[in-house]
């Protein structure tokens, strides 16, 4: 709801050749970044694009390539960290093949340094397109910031929903009979934060 411009930007970035090689959805917690990534890649899947999901977590943050573990086969042992990175990149290349391939990364601010190195290699050497979400306000590692500072990915700042989009979202759930006073109250409390709107409506 109210995200047509952002979705159009993402689609353009991942379906055209050359840099930037995708999009970074940047915004505060609850603003709707994950939903945007999900809707964008769902549309790509319908269009026949191959998509691989990576969901970064705090638990995997201290493990090299922890969030990418599902891409590594059981027999992918490595004596050195560099070998593990090379193996993961090879796996991504194999998945990409000759078709358009998109890596969707949720909560990329939780990625470990080796995973960030893999992302750099994936977009510069393997032709992988990336759509990822990053929460603002965190102390972000240089390897992550470099993805958009070096124009490898395009940063899209995701703002809270406008008042009109917030009211449209609420009435889509509660129906057109929702009172103006209720719509005003939800706007005053949420200020367009999609997560807050959802919790209030629930």
Number of helices: 8
Calculate the terminal CA-CA distance, rounded to whole Å: 17 Å
Please tally the β strands and state the result. Answer: 5
Largest sheet, in brief, is: 5 strands, parallel
Order of strands in the sheet with most strands: 2-3-4-1-5
Q: Over the alpha carbons, how many angstroms does the gyration radius reach?
A: 19 Å
User: Regions with pLDDT < 50 over 5+ consecutive residues?
Assistant: none
Strand content: 5-15%
What's the order of the H and E elements? HEHEHEHEHEHHH
The 3D shape can be described as elongated
Helix content: 40-55%
Return the structural class: alpha/beta
Give the mean pLDDT: 90
Description of the molecule:
With 202 residues, this protein is of the alpha/beta class. It contains 8 helices and 5 strands; from the N terminus they run αβαβαβαβαβααα. It has helices at 4-15, 33-46, 81-96, 113-125, 142-149, 163-174, 180-190, 194-201; strands spanning 22-27, 50-55, 101-106, 129-135, 154-157. A 5-stranded parallel β-sheet has the order 2-3-4-1-5, with helices on both faces. Helix 1 (4-15) crosses helix 2 and helix 3 crosses helix 4 (113-125). It starts with a helix and ends with a helix. 33% of the residues are buried.
Keywords:
202 residues; alpha/beta; 47% helix; 14% strand
Task: Briefly say what this structure is.
By secondary structure, this protein is an alpha/beta fold.
């Amino acid at each position: 709801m109210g995200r047509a411009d952002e979705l159009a930007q993402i689609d353009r970035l991942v379906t055209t050749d050359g840099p930037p090689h995708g999009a970074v959805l940047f915004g505060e917690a609850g603003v709707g970044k994950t939903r945007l990534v999900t809707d964008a890649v769902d549309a790509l899947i319908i269009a026949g694009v191959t998509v691989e999901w990576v969901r970064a977590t705090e638990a995997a943050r201290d493990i090299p390539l922890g969030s990418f573990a599902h891409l590594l086969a059981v027999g992918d042992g490595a004596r050195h960290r560099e070998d593990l990175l090379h193996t993961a990149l090879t796996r991504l290349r194999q998945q990409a093949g000759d078709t358009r391939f998109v890596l969707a990364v949720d909560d990329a601010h939780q990625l470990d340094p080796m995973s960030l190195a893999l992302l750099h290699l994936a977009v510069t050497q393997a032709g992988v397109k990336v759509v990822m979400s990053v929460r603002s306000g965190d102390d972000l590692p240089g390897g992550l910031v470099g993805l958009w500072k070096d124009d490898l990915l395009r940063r899209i700042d995701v703002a809270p929903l406008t008042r009109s989009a917030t009211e449209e979202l609420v009435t889509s759930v509660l129906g057109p009979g929702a009172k103006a006073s209720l719509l005003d109250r939800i706007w005053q409390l949420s200020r367009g934060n999609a997560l807050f709107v959802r919790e209030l409506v629930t």
